[in-house]
Structure formats: C-alpha cells, structure tokens
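Notes on consecutive records. When two proteins share a document, each keeps its own sequence and its own token line. Never mix them. Below: protein one.
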Amino acid sequence: MAYKHGTYGEFAKSIGAVPINSETTAVYVGTAPVNLLRGYSAAVNAPIKISNLTEAQEKLGYSKDWNSFTLCEAMEAHFNNVLGNVGPVVFINVLDPATHKKLQSKTESLTFVNGQAKIKSDTIILDTLALADKVEGTDYTVSYDFAAGTAVISSTTITEAVEATYSEVDTSAVENSDVVGQATSAGVYKGLGVIQLIYPELGLITNIIAAPKFSAVKEVYKAMVNAATKINGHWDAFVNADISITDTDTIAKAIDAKATNEMVAERSKAYWPMWKTAGGDIYHLSTLATKAMLEIDTEHDTVPMESCSNKQIISGKQYFGASSTNKGFDQQTANQLNEKGITTAVFWGGINVLWGPHTAAYDNGVITDNRVIFDNSIRTMMHVTNSFQREWGMEIDKPMTKALAETIKNREQEKVDALKAMGALIGDPVVEFNESDNTTDDMVQGNFTWSNKQTPTPPFKSGTLKVAYTTAGFAAEYGGEA
C-alpha cells in the first residue's frame, strides 16, 4: 500500500439503494456472464448468494444483454430498481466458458491511449485474453468495466499497437438440459440440482424458484416443480414460471400454450406476456413477481400471507415481441387470463401492477383442491411445513416422551394462533396429536404425527356494490307518494 499522510478523496464504484433484507429465499437459475471474471470456475453450477449489484458484478459479472445472460435481469430487478431493492438472492449460473464457447478465437489490434486499451465485448472470456509477446502482470493488467461493457487493458510500458487474442462464450450453446441439470450419488450437482446444495452450504431454505426465459420450456418447468418439492427431502418451495411470447402474442394463444406445456402444478404460477419499461428494458413477469413476493413477505414478517397480485411493478407496458402488432389489454380483458390460472400485468389505479392471484393449477369451474385457488394459500401452508421441520429438526432421535409430544403440539398451536392474530389464517386453526394418527405400529418404529388444520385467509378477489334506483327520494324531497 502506498504511503499516505493527509486527507484523500477517491471515487468508488457506484452502488444502488440499500436493499430490503428479506428472509424469503428466492433462487434464480440461468446464465450469467462469468466469462468476464478472472477465475470464473467457482461461479459455475454453484449457489451464489448476492446482496447487492456490486457483489453481483464481482461474483457473477453483468451485461445488459439479458436474453443471452438471463440472470442479469434478476440482478437489475432486485438490486437496481427505482421502486426499491430487495435481497439477498441466490443465483445458480449454468454457463461454463470452458465448454460453452465459440470454436474460433478472435484476434484484433489494440492501440493504447493514456496507458489503456479497451475491447468492447460482453462475450470475451477474460481468462483467455493474451497480448502478443507480452506478459500479463509484468507488461499489462486486465480488468472489466461493467458500466461501459469493456475489457480494460492497462500498461505503463506498451506504446505501440499490439495484437490481442481471446476466446468468446457462446450462450446459444447452453441447452435446456444444462438448466434441468442433475444431482448424482457421486456428488455432481448441475443446474436445478444445485438447489440441493443451498441448505447445507448456505444454511438457507429455498422458498421461490425462477428461471427467466428457460421456465417457458416444458421440460424445464417440470424439472423446476420437481426441484421445488421436498428439497433435501424436507423443504417446500414455490415456482414462478413464464409462458413464452414466441408465436404467442394473443390471450387465446397464451392459454393454449399453458395447456400444451402442462403448466398446471399447484406449487407454481404462470405469467404472460413480458414487460417493457420506458427505458427499453424487457423483463419476464416471473422476475418482477419474485421480487414483489420478497417485498410482501418481508412486510408480513416473512409469512407469505398476501398475493403478489395488484402489487406495483416498474412503470412500463405489456410486451409481446418485436414483431407483434398487439397493443395490449386492460384489467377486464386480463381476467380472461386469470380465470385460466395465468397472471399478467396491467395499468390500474394510476400504477402498473401484477394481476392474478391464482396458482397455475387454477381453472375456473374445475378445482381439484381448495388450496390451489390462491397463491398465498399454498405458500402459507408451505411456510407452516417448513417452520415445523426447521424448529423440531434438532429434537430428532431424542426420547419421545408424552411431555415432548405435548410440547410440540402446544408450540405448533401457538404458531397457528399467531398466524391467525396477524391475519394469515381465519377461523379456529387447531393442532392435534391424535391416537388415530399414531398407531402402536407407527410409534414402535419411532414415527409420530401431529395434525394441523388451518384455513389460509383468502384475498379480496372481487367486490361488488349493488346500486338500485328508487323513487323514494322524490317523496322525501318534495312530499307526496313514493
């Protein structure tokens, strides 16, 4: 470190507003420009916890090409949002520059100006950059400017033009199977399989899973639902998925696409179309909904008692694709999507909001189970199951006395009573330890069961005021018969 004596001022990297700290854990799976990092291997198929935009750039890279680098969309939504930021978020990047790269390397001539030369690229694999007849660390250094989208080569000795060679990533080489991934008995984790590592490595329980762009693919959606079911054999999570706008630019086509892709899981929501801001940024609604869920849960002390429907999102308009002639639709028309279990976004009450409180399993008139009607209902039930496992996990293999059975029952009753008091449940929720649920054979094997009966509070989905015309006013005003 250089010797200093006196006061100094320096420019630091710009940062976004301090994010709200949420205890709801959202996990995004997709592609990040880790090729822009030095030593990127630690950011490939690994759970990376991110709390702000600067950290995201340092650990995963950043690019404005969200179609190629899908995780950057979530970085922007959570950590550089004019409506406020919220995190932390866990990212799983499946882009591996070692395999997802172009066959031919690229060569170009660099000219240094004021000790720097720049390469405008977000596909450059920084670790492969080399200057002819020069030694990195001795003749030059390499960094990346995420704001400008350029690789910066600095040198105090190079003055002449020099030839640079480097490899580039090819994001089109990423397959849906890379996102689906795996978790093998040999300890290999890739794609959605990496979710199995989040609890043991980070100590976080996954609550929401999203994969912008990729979730619209049938095989990926199904893999997301499977990955969200009993994570590590225990945890319940919810899936936010999108219906593709490719060749799907009308409501009728969106409804058909949802059915074709079998997007009907009760632990998921389906979103359509996309969302374009005034500045030209194009978001998947699943991303904006995931961000909204974290904010709403935080307002209710982590309890997911309120739907993300009718919650404000960044100003913009519905987006159906660059070649679509669809100009959008209003709230009433959006209800055609809602009744088929599709959430959208509309202008309402002077702001832009998400619109649709149902799970993807909802189909008006065809209800298999009441818990599938609203997203907050099943997410509240997930909150309860996860809470039970988290609280009593350390009691496993201790003596199961009658006193412990009663302690667990009473504690779980306290928790549902608290949920009722805060408005998350209605009626009289009850927790029981019944003989019928605990046969002698079960107890001999050390298996014990408590019954939790609860009613999640439904959202105020619609309200109707009936106004009737009456002639009574004439009699009251002027006298005579009504």
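Protein two starts on the next line and is unrelated to protein one.
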Amino acid sequence: MSLDDSRKGQLLSLKLRVLVREHLGDAVPESDLEPLSFSRGAAVKHGTVVWVLVSDNPQRGLGPALLWTLKEGATALNVLAEENTGVLARQAEHFSFPITVWQVNDRVLIPAIALPHVEAAQALPEHLEFIDLIASGGAVPRVEHGIVTGEVLGLEVCRAVTDAYTGEVRLEVGMGAHDREAFVLLHGNKPQQEALSGVVASVAKQRRHDAEPHPFNRLAPERMLRARVMNEPELVGAVSLEPCDPPFARSNVLDVVPCVGKAQGADGKQFIVVFTTGADPDIVPFALDARSYVDPNAELVIAMPDTHITRTNRLALEKATKPARFLGIPAATKNSQLASPS
C-alpha cells in the first residue's frame, strides 16, 4: 500500500466513524466502534453489526461488503455510499441476510430507495444499418443497451457511433474510444470492411485458449467464456445460448464486468446464465440483479472457471432469497470450439 493509499484509508475510516457516531447518537461511545480494514473503503464493527463505507466503484460494492461481513461473523450489514445507492438497495433486496443501504448526504445518513431497473435503450436505426458491414468484416454483431458493436470471441473490435460535433454516423474500428480514435488517425483512408477484416483476423489469432499471453486474450475474459459456451452450450446443460443485456451497461470496454446469456435446455425451458472469471467478489449480487432484470422467475446459473469458485461466494449465494447455483466450466482444450468467431 502506498502512502497515498494509507492516508486515504485513514481519512475514510475517520469519516465513517463520524458518520456512524452521529447516526447512532452520543449514547454509543467511540470505543464501541471497532475499526476494521476494508479494501474498498472503510469499515467499523459495533457489536455484531458491521458498517461499511464503499468508496471504490460503489455500484459493484455490495458483494465485497457482504463477503467481508460474513467472514467477520456479523449478524447485519449497513452499506454506506455517496452514489449508486439505488442500485445497491435494489441488490440488497435479493438477500435474506439483513442489509441496509444508506445514502451519505454530507454528514447525514438517509435510507436508500431501491432504484427500479431502467428499460434498455433502443439502438438507433442508422446504427443498426452497420450490422451487415460488421458481419461481412468477420465480426459478430451485438446490440447491448442500445449500443451496436462487433465482437470477436467476446472482444469488442468496432462500434457504431454518432459524432457529437458533426452528427456524422460511422462505424469505428478498435477496442475502446482511444483505440478507435488512434485507428482513424493511422488508417483513416482504409475501406471500412478491409480495416475491420484485418483487425478481426489479428484478434481471432490471439483470442484462443492455446495462444501465448497477449492483450487480446486478457481483455474481456468473461465475454470470451460466454462466446465459448455459445459454441458449446452443453457446458451449461443447454442446447443453445444467446447473449442478453446485463442489468446496467458497461462504462468502459476495458472494465471486467460479468455478462449475461439466456439459455434453453433440452426440455425447452429457458434459464439465465451469468458469466464471470476470477474470484469476483461482487458476482452474487450482480447475478441476482441480472435475473431480476431479464426474467425474475427463471432459474439462475453462475458460470465461471471451476477453479475460481470461492467458498465465500458460495456462502453469499446461500443468503439469496431465491435459489441459484454455481457451475464450474473446465479449462478449454484443443477440442474446444473457442477458435470460431461465430
């Protein structure tokens, strides 16, 4: 931990203690608030109740706070944040464990109100016109939260955009805004299909289970896992799997955020599959929220590499009000169909 991180942690811990003291009243002495280390912000324990201030990416802060609370053996959790508390309160409703979310307003704690899901935006018709071009360039067209993109095994390689200044509609090639801007500067005169085909070929070569480590196979690993299961739906006990929108849009293509699919079993029943990789501490709240967004009554499966399923995440899932289950996906082999960009 750097000195800046240490100082930030001290300030957050002080802020949290002040907020909790003023909320609980002077009857609670300072000595009754036990400061504890929490990597996403700060935490204190009062008896068997934990108070957590989430400052780092609060929209995905409920999972880390809950896992940490369960490790402490506490009986209730209070989550404090300055933003995204409506999402946190909505996620908290999916648990039987006592969780209260508070909006920090200066030095006052206000009970957060659960924010209902917002209907996904519709893609602009002029953006949808690029779908044929995306497919002819070798990428897989995707529309997620109204954004038209092209992917290669889950990695975004192009996006339909409208220029904020000129109003020009165009298909930009690249991964992320900066990469797309750089591509235009370097290859602006190259025909779009030719430009896209070249990028698709380069990415597909690296985005394989047997490829050497490369940025192309490190980005969006959860979407690469979904792409593999789309080619091999039997891995989740399905006959088919189609992508669907997550409960909220990614803010950055480089962010590691779980993705969602709707699967159909051999019996014709549909179920929701949420994909993640790594020991994602927020996967349980995210997955429960995704089910409530896509189909609240559907079966929920959380798919991830089998070696990444942790005991604490299993414990958190046991606290869900509706049943769900983890499903481990074995490592890809030479027989896997991951190499196919379709």
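For the record: The two ends are 43 Å apart (CA to CA).
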